[in-house]
Batch of 2 targets.
Target 1
Amino acid sequence: MTSPASADLDLTQDVALLTAALIDAKSVSGEETALADAIERALRAQTSLSVVRDGDAIVARSGLGRSERVILAGHIDTVPLPTVDGARGTVPSSWDGEPGEGTLWGRGATDMKGGVAVQLALAARLFPAAGTHDAGASPAAPASPARDVTFVFYDHEEVEASKSGLGRLAANHPDLLAGDFAILLEPTNGTVEGGCNGTLRVEATTVGEAAHSARAWMGRNAIHAAAPILARLADYFPATVTVDGLDYRESLNAVGISGGTAGNVIPDRCTVTINYRFAPDKGIEEAEAAVRTLLEGFEVVRTDGAPGARPGLNHPAAAAFVAVVGRDPLPKYGWTDVARFSQLGVPAVNFGPGDALLAHKDDERVEAAAIRECLASLEAWLRA
Amino acid sequence: MTSPASADLDLTQDVALLTAALIDAKSVSGEETALADAIERALRAQTSLSVVRDGDAIVARSGLGRSERVILAGHIDTVPLPTVDGARGTVPSSWDGEPGEGTLWGRGATDMKGGVAVQLALAARLFPAAGTHDAGASPAAPASPARDVTFVFYDHEEVEASKSGLGRLAANHPDLLAGDFAILLEPTNGTVEGGCNGTLRVEATTVGEAAHSARAWMGRNAIHAAAPILARLADYFPATVTVDGLDYRESLNAVGISGGTAGNVIPDRCTVTINYRFAPDKGIEEAEAAVRTLLEGFEVVRTDGAPGARPGLNHPAAAAFVAVVGRDPLPKYGWTDVARFSQLGVPAVNFGPGDALLAHKDDERVEAAAIRECLASLEAWLRA
């Protein structure tokens, strides 16, 4: 084991303790530089990977010349710290009991410094720097990875999409993101969650004619005119679509409504904001067409949208990985960066330690055992 | 004719020219004092009425000892001046053509300095100060009024109800507002408009359960739940109710709707603001009960309301007045201060020169002939 003086992070320590060290290196979006520096130094010093830095993103690639290349990706930023006194999902981290055992609390514990710790530990275990392997502790040298691996660490995931470090990498260095299959180490409780639903936002607007409400018959009520929009949304039964063997449950919802100017004026305008989460069997144009069909007769304007991602589980590398994990894969409902890989032509799944429902919460935490289990599954797969 | 040095206003001049003088005495709500001073001085100097001042309201009463007393009331304030360059509904006033003929433009022309001018002219003609009557110009002295008259001039009508000068008078001096019948000289194009509809505002709220919109089935959508509220309002066919011979057209409308907290959150609350304009055959409690019945199953909270006023045309004084005007009376739809008289037990109608639809407009104006016609009708009735 080594503890290089040139790096703050010891990638060879227990992966749960490494997670705690990563939490302690506070890295709210926009303030990732110190952590990115530490990760870059550690990768250069403790692994044989070739490292490229772009802003606060780091790409570290192996060069074994294998026929397949897989990508392991994770963001290093977190949402802001809790503002509630006594919240444990903060910085520095804390343990229930002995360090390294049980539950680890802290900002980023589940989203997603546990996943980043697994990436870093894998990098050090699979691709140790020359002379750092302690042959004595492991008489039978472990198998060399069967696939080349690209590790991607990126900034600005928890903020507006335009700032995304992964988006910037895709624009500046698409070659560095080439691969046959990608795993995003977002929290999935150790289950493979394939692809993701797309998301589309539209505004449906009704237009009426203003009048004094004491003489309502002189106007036309735009809020009343919106009744069929709400009725159609309320009556709509969202589909569940099977894509590559996973069942994607869709949803179509009004997420906002506004209308009216004053308590004595017949409203001349009412706007319903609608969010359609659509299965990855369709593109964003198809999704928009479906909403337009449902709301036929109403003015519909797209305001926002991002395509989903197919799970890609039909790829051999993905199938092998699912077999190693040994659990039935699930569909991912929320939009994640797997969609960016999908757009680059790389099938991608989510797989990481921790519970996504604890993400961004004041009681954010992760189990040490879950982090180790995740590391073990990935290492077993990559060495197979 | 007299032109008292102690007063700025000559109440005996042509009533259209008097209207112009009143417009020129700018009196936006809250700035009525100078005009109230001038009116008080003129009434004291040029009439035999007994005058009481309360704030910027003035009550001037005759004491003929007649068996009936009628009230003529009007507010002396206006909405603010137009802010648009070149608008003619401003101060000072202006004429199309010769002063006193044709169209008079200015803030308050229709709402309601024309009506106030008619009140002041009537006061001077019916109840001239001792020694001011020019017998030479009118060899047959006009008949003395058959009814006692109370003239009410009040402030703060164009602002929130709590500031109303008429409301203050009703609280401080209910005795001064006693009478058998009241005419409010709001603009009605010279037609008697009887009573007024009441107004009720309620909020109907739906409550759901928030969830991420990517997992909509974890929540309940409060906006969708509001669909039946809008459908019932849209399908509702408002009644027309005949009260004392006038047809009151009701209306029931959503005047506002809001719901939703973010583009990716299932809304847990949606509030529809509803305004019911109800005929004066019912009180506010009955009106609220009707809305609750229509929206059965939904949470309904009353936020605001004011009862309407029956037209009171069955009163002999009212019937005589309608006969003198010689036009079919109409119902009043908007809420006006006749409702305050109604609450004091005094039947009241609206009758005044000018078009109510020009009130508050940048092109506010009134016809000189309409002002004179209004004065003639009232004088004929009061001398009958």
Note: The first helix of chain B runs from residue 15 to 24.
Target 2
Amino acid sequence: MLGGSHAQAPKLAGFNRIGQVIAVVSGKGGVGKSSLTALLAVALGRQGQKVGVLDADITGPSIPKLFGLPAGGLRGNEAGILPAITRTGIRVVSANLMLPEEDAAVAWRGPLITGLIQQFWGQVLWGKLDTLLVDLPPGTSDPLLTVVRQMPLRGAVLVTSPQQLAALVVRKAVNLLKTLNVPVLGVVENLAYYPCPQSGEHHEVFGPSHAYEVAVAAGCDLLVRLPIDPSLTQLGDAGRIEEAELPELAPLVARLLGVVTQRAQA
Amino acid sequence: MLGGSHAQAPKLAGFNRIGQVIAVVSGKGGVGKSSLTALLAVALGRQGQKVGVLDADITGPSIPKLFGLPAGGLRGNEAGILPAITRTGIRVVSANLMLPEEDAAVAWRGPLITGLIQQFWGQVLWGKLDTLLVDLPPGTSDPLLTVVRQMPLRGAVLVTSPQQLAALVVRKAVNLLKTLNVPVLGVVENLAYYPCPQSGEHHEVFGPSHAYEVAVAAGCDLLVRLPIDPSLTQLGDAGRIEEAELPELAPLVARLLGVVTQRAQA
């Protein structure tokens, strides 16, 4: 089903076969990028894909918590680092899996962050994956540059939220991705509205949407608008994100599966 | 009213007199840290203070937008950089004020970020300020370390949001601040609930609060719980944050004013 794997660190080239690498980018923090990464991984897994998640948010890693993976869960041998594996078989690497406690204080300088992300790519025994999702931290600093330069990205999924302020910061990321020649595969607006459980009315609690502006700037479709969903927060807080149902993600999942097909045919 | 100014870059020591420097910290992005910084600046200004805001979020600067300050608004002469000044007289320095357009793509590496923050502290003609608020980006990386090591911080205001996931990442910042001997002056929980405009009921749209856990970890009071307020988003998006009324901030404002008094008496 998949085309050949991309170039990777030489010593693991024979072991790792990764179909596509997709970055999940926002520029702005707190728009639910990590939750979306986790939900996308779950959705792709339900489509039969083998999925990995590389948590490149070294100073604010959220991925292990969402999947209920404990701190200290990363193992290694002389061949490389073994990813942690979630209940449904998603392979995860994150700085939080290396720490003795999940809230341990680590003061990371830029070069250390860069080095760790490079290790997560070049020294992890990912094995055969259809899709590797890379969860990037907020900002347009070292982690984004490292991921774009070191990994064979097929493209990025952009996450934004309704505020114009968020849209502004996300547009910065869009412009940087353009400069770096990373195609944007789709835009997701998170926290778009709150469906009142009493009246069913959609409250735009963060103001009217500015996501279409972001999509226009990125030159791609706005694929998904997600509501504020307290049950999703609770599943994430309980480490049970794999039980979530999010049919709204279907167009984005189809796009990511389509990208694989297109490239495999090429 | 104020004690002596703190040590600063030697050449500006005669010109700049800064009563207290307060960092606004979260660790987690998107919890409304920049909005809170702006609202705190406005509230302190209304108490008669001269206030400056140093936007240390180099890659995702939000402060100028909130105050309606245009890109390119920073001027300088041979003596130093002149801050932009808001309608109510708050002095602001931000990376976005240096850019030709507010969504210009800038790829910043760690050392460049560190250097720019140092410039914002050491080469800006702040003049006489009662309070300088430093808006820190998410994460526990270069910017936080630079600010803690270079500036004479009186303490930090911690901003969190209800999700346990946010609380986890904020606790990381708490632990790092402890290691670095920066006292936490107060905890603010933002986005705590959404008051339904129809029923008046408080919906915990991001799940039940975990802010008290953060306050306990930080060894300080939970001073403020702020609701989700669409009108505040709109004022911020319109660059009119100075028109906001936020009486809930009073205990935190009193704490910050109190800190000044205590130090002046010491």
Note: Chain A touches chain B through 66 residues (CB under 8 Å).
